[in-house]
Amino acid sequence: MKTLEIIGLGKVFGSGRLEVRALENINMSVSPGELVALMGPSGSGKTTLLLCISLILEPTVGTVVFDGETIFQDGWTGLDVRRLRREKIGFVFQTANLIPFLTARENVLLPMDLIGVKGEAARKRADELLEYMEVADRADYLPALLSGGEQQRVSIARALANRPKLILADEPTASLDTTRGKKVMEMLKKIAREHQTAVITVTHDARMIEGFDVVYHLKDGQLNHQGAI
Amino acid sequence: MDLAVKDLKRHLGRFLTTIIGVGLLFGTVLAMNGIYRGVVFEGISLIESINPDLWVVERFRGGPFSEQSTMAEDFHYSVAAVPGVAQASPFIVYPVEREIRGKSTRFSIIGYDVFGGLGGPKKLTAGRGIKRAHYEAVAHKKLGLSLGEKIPLGLHQYTIVGLTDDITSPDGEPVVFLSLPDAQEVLFQRDNETVRNQRERLRRSLARNALNSQETDRLISELQTETHTINAVLVKLAPGADRLKVARHIEDWLYFSVYTSQEEINLMLRGRLAKARMQLLIFRIILLIVSMVILTLVIYTFTMEKIRSIAIMKLMGAANWVIVHLVLEQSLLLTVTSFIIGWLIIHYTQGFFPRKIFLTPLDEAITFTLALVGGLIASGLGIWQALKTQPALALGGH
């Protein structure tokens, strides 16, 4: 079963003379453990596509099937999209976007707390993930005291907290230098391989997607499949 | 995970300074409530404490507190003879500023019939009431005097035999009780030079009217200022006596004005205290509005500072109640702790105020409720902003 299938998806902003076709006839599918890169120039629709995939932005037309469930078919199908986001999607942002008043561990605990996983089991899972992301020694630090790379790794640990089916990463290396950026991308690859989690990454930097399974190129809202790197 | 508490703990310094600041503001609001109530309480405390059935005062005057009332002392015998009157006592009250323990001090003197008459102190905190016709006094403990201490008033020294704390003048000054003759003496006592000058003027005036020196000397003593005057007669009615009928009789036959204690209180509230009350009431309302606006802004700012974190949580799929809980809990914590601080501040500092701060549970409850309403309105605005925040804000896009 595919993790994500998108069929004929389109997104139009505005109407009449102000109408902007941000996405047109997007078709793509992502399998468990697959690494997908979305590339394209600024304004090509990458973030809009990511928002549509993450069930935040309502597409105008098309069908979105997530983990076997049809979420969108020319309109929301009534499934609780927030619950799906809580339970099945992990997010990694351009900047780490950690909650500033929570420690690294608490940031990882938060998604579990949102689905009712609390106590020692949650704490153990958070510590394991921080260990996995090699930031266990920074567990009790506030985000402001972590380096950019450490913050990004904590944010990946947070994205993994609820064992998501899909990780959406919006230019996760944009705010990092090349070495730290590559390390973050290695982490994402490792997650995809070891946890069979599908990963969709938006990036500008072709050097960062070495070893990805599929690369899509977006231009003027249209998707162009480019195969593996 | 209690996000509200975690946020406040991470910003503990800011949280503490905020609640101390807002708490001081609430303290000021509560103090203003207390000052307002205190002005009214002190303004009528003398009337409420003495509380005779009727106050007989100079005709067409609202005395003895709302305006000056003067009448001859012996009229109380006439009042006592009115059918339905069980007791009628002379009463005098006036403010003075005298040196006590080397410090110029303002207080009011009350003169009354110390041998069973009305108008004396109701409750003593120490010592005894006045038992002798002269040179004994009962003082309010705010004057800081001790039992047995002597204070100079006019030509004589007065020994403090008792202390009281249940009565102040309408201006909030402490009172000193004296026997009626002593109070009259202190009020009308003039220094020898003034008396000599006054007599000399009279002598010259009488001489101009062709009176011989023997007649002049005789008339001078007759024409001295009348000192046997009082401000009011306090009346206790006989059991079953009709208050209105007695009042009407005194007004019609003795040509005085008569008020009940409640009417005296109303005269004070509508007259002497009215402007001060209104001034304080308006200031109190303004202060309350300012406090609510500031509290609302503080809570709203606290929420808006977290708007990006809220967007992240929404992106992660946090349910609305998680966001509502965060904003509401923080708002309530800020409101309640600020109010408690304000409450503590005013309760521990009220004794330092020169006039009475009369705090009532009702005022405190109303202020707290209004603060809570302000907090909830601010939370509502914050929640509205938080709920309409787009999760996309976290991505920095759209």
Automatic annotation (TrEMBL), chain A:
Is Kinase found in the keyword set? no
Q: Record's Gene3D superfamilies?
A: P-loop containing nucleotide triphosphate hydrolases
- Matches recorded under SUPFAM superfamilies: P-loop containing nucleoside triphosphate hydrolases (SSF52540)
- Pfam families under this entry? ABC_tran
Every copy of the ABC transporter domain together lies at 4-229
Q: Which family does it belong to?
A: Belongs to the ABC transporter superfamily. Macrolide exporter (TC 3.A.1.122) family.
Q: Which InterPro entries did the record assign? A: AAA+_ATPase, ABC_transporter-like_ATP-bd, ABC_transporter-like_CS, ABC_transpr_LolD-like, MacB-like_ATP-bd, P-loop_NTPase
* Entry GO CC: membrane protein complex; plasma membrane
Q: PANTHER family from the xrefs?
A: ABC TRANSPORTER ABCH.1, IMPORT ATP-BINDING PROTEIN
Q: Name one GO molecular function term.
A: transmembrane transporter activity
KW tRNA processing (keyword) present: no
Q: What is this protein called?
A: ABC transporter ATP-binding protein
Q: What are the protein's UniProt keywords? A: ATP-binding, Nucleotide-binding, Transport
UniProtKB/TrEMBL annotation, chain B:
Q: Name one GO cellular component term.
A: plasma membrane
Q: How does it sit in the membrane?
A: Multi-pass membrane protein
**Which stretches are transmembrane?**
12-36, 280-302, 322-346, 366-387
Q: Give the top-rank taxon of the lineage listed in the UniProt record for this protein.
A: Bacteria
Give residue ranges for domain MacB-like periplasmic core: 16-251
Location in the cell: Cell membrane
Is the keyword Ribonucleoprotein assigned to this protein?
A: no
Which is one Pfam family of this protein?
Answer: FtsX
Keyword list (alphabetical) reads: Cell membrane, Membrane, Transmembrane, Transmembrane helix, Transport
Describe the location of the ABC3 transporter permease C-terminal domain by residue ranges.
282-391
Q: What is its main location?
A: membrane
Name of protein: ABC transporter permease
What is the organism of origin for this protein?
Desulfobacca acetoxidans
